[in-house]
Amino acid sequence: METPSAIRARPPEGPAEAEADAWSLICRLARLSRRPGFDPTRPQWLRVKPDGDLTPLGAGEPRGSDWAWRPDRGWIPSRGSRDPGVQALLDLYLPLCGSSPEGAWVVGHLGQSLDGFIATGCGDSFYVTGPENLRHLHRLRALSDAVLVGTETAACDDPRLTTRLVPGDNPVRVILDRQRRLPPGLRLFTDGEAQTLLCCDEARVAWGGDRQGQARVLGIPCRNGRLDLRTLLVALEGQGLRRLFVEGGGALVSAFLAQGLLDRLHLTLAPLVIGTGRPGLRIPAPERLADAHRPPVRLFRMGADLLYDLDFGARSRTQGDTLGGTLTPLARIY
Fold first, then answer.
1. With helix as H, strand as E and coil as C, how does the chain read?
2. From the CB of residue 181, how many other CB atoms can be counted at a distance below 10 Å?
3. Is the pLDDT higher at 130 or at 333?
4. Residue 270 confidence (pLDDT) above 60
5. Mean model confidence pLDDT for the chain
6. Residue ranges of domains in the chain
7. N or C end of the chain: smaller count of CB under 10 Å?
8. CA dist., res. 234 & res. 240, Å (int)
9. Cβ neighbourhood burial of 327 (10 Å; 0-12, 13-18, 19+)
């Protein structure tokens, strides 16, 4: 099956090779848009070289381009793919490869059961969703400058937060631990696999206590007994971390959503009923259903799981209160 030149660097041997080429190109586009000299307010055009590298074209050469950057639409290929697997990858991940001139850009993810739980009552979460969604998490990490998790996720899961399941760079690992109570023996603080930041109450950063194992400690002001998330985003931007992935848990993702700090949320539903346990999203409820969040949505099937791609940033990019959802046909991600 033919794959367009905008996607492949060499003729693929089959669907798996075509999708691998597509993912490699997606990573290249994401890295390009994160470079300091990239201007997201200006249209740009690119050509894909035979070795897969991207060559910028002048403003007067758009006809020979394979890819275009549009400030209002992001990365756009000159032609779509006839390979459904490749097209599904492009549809899902290209919206995450952009750059914002207005500061941090934040995407969250939660994988939960049909009845809205991300783990059992004792914290067992291995695994609510299937292997396809786990690979998706690693792809989200690869497209991000930093991956953020809260105290409970770090303590219960002892995660590595690397991209070991997919090609791509490891993000900076950002651990939010207001009271600085996580044990220093966690893998995040000892494995050396990626840079790590421990963000805690600034009152708990003593002179000379700016390290926890191999992690740097960053003090953040608190508000109402919680880390001030808006100040946190500014502080991370000062560290060069602008494209942020809030991986969990439910309380942290809910806090970002409640404060209007999520641009996009990937909510994956697994065909699983837990009964009770640790909840996923929990935000202040409106009195009227008409005031509830109803963002534009796209659906992607991941094995037996169903991923809802919710665009919470759409409201700020459109005029008026237009939160009506747009449902796209299911695309399958492997």
1. CCCCCCCCCCCCCCHHHHHHHHHHHHHHHHHHHHCCCCCCCCCEEEEECCCCCEEEECCCCHHHCCEEEECCCEEEECCCCCCHHHHHHHHHHHHHCCCCCCCCEEEEEEEEECCCEEECCCCCCCCCCCHHHHHHHHHHHHCCCEEEECHHHHHHHCCCCCCCCCCCCCCEEEEECCCCCCCCCCHHHHCCCCCEEEEEEHHHCCCCCCEECCEEEEEECEECCEECHHHHHHHHHHCCCCEEEEEECHHHHHHHHHCCCCCEEEEEEECCCCCCCEECCCCCCCCCHHHCCCCCEEEEEECCEEEEEEECCHHHHCCCCCCCCCCCCCEECC
2. 10
3. 130
4. yes
5. 88
6. 15-96, 105-332
7. N
8. 10
9. exposed
Q: Side chain identity at 136, as an amino acid letter?
A: H
Whole-number Å distance between alpha carbons of 46 and 67: 5
Sheet order of strands, 74-77 included:
54-57, 44-48, 67-70, 74-77
For 137-185, the pLDDT digits (tens) are 999 999 999 999 999 999 999 999 999 999 999 999 999 999 999 999 9
Task: Specify the residue for token string 């937060």.
Answer: 161
Supply 276's token pair.
């009770």
pLDDT digits (tens, 9 = 90+) for 211-252: 899 999 999 999 999 999 999 999 999 999 999 999 989 999
Question: Which structure tokens are listed for 117?
Answer: 């739980």
Amino acid 88 reads A
| CATH level 3 topology of 105-332 | Dihydrofolate Reductase, subunit A (3.40.430)
- Retrieve residue 17's tokens: 């090779």
